[in-house]
Amino acid sequence: MIRHTLLLIFGLCISIVADDFRAFTDSSGRSIEAKVLGLDLKTNRVELEMRNGKIGKIPLSQLQLTEEDQAFFNELKTGAVFSDPDFLQVNITEETASHVDEWTKKKGKNHIYTIAIGNKSDLNFETVFVEYCIYRDLGSNKHRSTNLELPEQKLAAGEAVTLKTTQQHATFKSSGKMSISGLRVRLYYKMPNGAYAIREECFPRKLPLEQFAWARSDREMQEERARAPSPTDYPERVMTERDVRELAEQYAQVWRNNDFDTWKKLLYPMHVGREELEPGWFDRKAKTIKFLKITDVQGRNVKMRVTYDKKKETEGWLQITPSGHIKYTPVIFEHPFLRACGSLGMMASPFPHFRETSVEKLKEMNIPVDGFNPNSSNNAASINEIHNWLAQERGRFDISSPRVVLPEEDALAALEKARNMMKAFQAMQ
Predict the structure, then answer these.
(1) What is the pTM of this model?
(2) Residue that is last in its domain, among 328, 354, 386
(3) Which of 34, 154, 270, 333 has the smallest CB count inside 10 Å?
(4) Mind listing the pLDDT tens digit for each residue in 92-123?
(5) Are residues 182 and 100 both part of a single domain?
(6) In terms of C-beta distances under 8 Å and separation of at least 24 residues, what long-range contacts does 48-52 make, across chains too?
């Protein structure tokens, strides 16, 4: 998460969220120690909070400003200009085109949003970056967001730039409405002191923010991951079978009690910064889980049966690291070997989109995919090589340390499932 001074604009008054008190001298020569809360651009009055908690506004001209103070208020004003729609104009438009989903055959539309940004001020903004969330309506007041960043921009005085979001597919629901609800955009300007001025827009303009919460960006998650402890920070913990069972019971309990804080503490730090470690995501998932039961224990691997609403059941492994943290789970964060086998099966799909997505997932796991062409349906030899590689690596495959290996029987079952999926796709062609 961005951990710097934050500027927010309300009309012509800019508020600043900062923790530091500053020493000022007023026109009478008296020393004032205060926190700057805001600056009214129309009246040029600064709002200050004193050490005793009192808040007041005084004209900026009544303060004897040092060079450092002057630079501070100049940056504050720059942030205000960036956030003012009269000086930095943002216009969002939506392009749609008819679309038929190649898999479900449902009719829908392709959506692309264009974000036009015009700098009407006489200031140059050296470092501007844009994030956006596209919201999909999943029904029953549930929404999923796609949070992405656009390349950093330099906005010179009088210049304009046009940015486009990635194409999003939407299908018609039974109600006749589209499954895409709208877009939220954030523009960030990083000032020399490390502060960020933030501008937010949405499309349509009346998109209810209480329903469409802002999803954390890849940038924020990467920063959180960088602060997470490394594997070497955790000593190895000796665990008996009883200890392993108790940890698995704790895991089951957090889902039953919807206990997000405990669940997060149980997980290995490698998962820090993932969207699944957000309270809203966890709450939605917990509401679908009815029961978890231990069915087998093999060392630090615990097989659990998960019962969801609508009587759906799955079974998977809870896998524990030498430090006593949970690394892979039967509900989410499944072992990467299972994800790899799922992608392998989809590589035989007759649809290029699924082939392309699958090969990208394998590349992310550093699995060799040489010779595979997602634009061709004739990849049998390449797919067979990937299958053989996974079969050979199954006893030691993991994508991060400390290595946790999927039990043999489940690895073989995953490979068999991938083969069956490929056969089914081949029969369709």
Answers:
(1) 0.62
(2) 328
(3) 154
(4) 998 888 877 666 677 777 888 899 999 998 88
(5) yes
(6) 48/24, 51/21
